[in-house]
Amino acid sequence: MIFQTAEAPNENIVIPKTIEYEGYTKETTINVDAFLYSDKDVEELGLNGQLKNYFCNDCGSKNIESLNFISHSTSTLQLRYIFEHVLNGIEINDKIVLDIGSRLGSVLYVGYLFSSTKKLIGIELNQFFADLQKEIIQEYNMSDRVEIIQDDIMNHPQLLQTADIIIMNNVFQFFHSLPIQQAIWSFIRVNTKPSTLIITFPDLKEQLGDANCTNIDFDKWVKEIKIKIPYKKSQLTEDEWKDLKLIHLYKVL
């Protein structure tokens, strides 16, 4: 197995200045794609010496600390959970799914293969990842139901206005400054129509708080739909359980 970083060429990832990521820096953080590498894969890469797990506080000494690992993609377990359980019981045959910040396109591929949804649209700001998704869709003949748009979501209000299900995996926090995050969230708030389902991870209210979106009244915008993890805690690793607990479902009022 060969490790491939989750960063695109020349991509600028910003470490959020929040309590959750306190102590994280560009030098001590590795971006690992959860869709491509499971926790077991990361452990194996570390044991084989292909992926370093520690950094030295002062070069040459034994004063070392564990590196921080971050993923910007949805894991296979999370994808299975979303399409088999979170959306279970919802009639989606005639629905349009919008994945904001589609990156590698994992949500779109799984949605195409394991759901009967009418259309899956991914919008991705990064040209490298958008082109990669288009190549995969072309190669595996998914263009009848999957569409990729390379652009900023703020240039496409109609996507939000027509989407029935919107999926966002911590899509803005690592890629935009706070003022831009606030502008994007306000744009999404204004353009989402009633009854639209929004799936976010982590918690939408938490993301709005981290972005200091004081102008958005959460309780007047959406109502959370409680979802139950269909596994016993003992069936999953601690990290897997935490990954599923991150996923939240909302309905626009």
Automatic annotation (TrEMBL):
Catalysis: reaction(s): arsenic triglutathione + [thioredoxin]-dithiol + S-adenosyl-L-methionine + 2 H2O = methylarsonous acid + [thioredoxin]-disulfide + 3 glutathione + S-adenosyl-L-homocysteine + H(+); arsenic triglutathione + 3 [thioredoxin]-dithiol + 3 S-adenosyl-L-methionine = trimethylarsine + 3 [thioredoxin]-disulfide + 3 glutathione + 3 S-adenosyl-L-homocysteine + 3 H(+); arsenic triglutathione + 2 [thioredoxin]-dithiol + 2 S-adenosyl-L-methionine + H2O = dimethylarsinous acid + 2 [thioredoxin]-disulfide + 3 glutathione + 2 S-adenosyl-L-homocysteine + 2 H(+)
EC identifiers of the protein: 2.1.1.137
Residue span, Methyltransferase domain: 95-213
SUPFAM superfamilies, per the entry: S-adenosyl-L-methionine-dependent methyltransferases
Domain of life: Eukaryota
Molecular function GO labels: arsenite methyltransferase activity
Pfam family of the protein (one): Methyltransf_31
Database matches in Gene3D superfamilies: Vaccinia Virus protein VP39
Family: Belongs to the methyltransferase superfamily. Arsenite methyltransferase family.
Record protein name field: Arsenite methyltransferase
Lineage: Eukaryota, Fungi, Fungi incertae sedis, Mucoromycota, Glomeromycotina
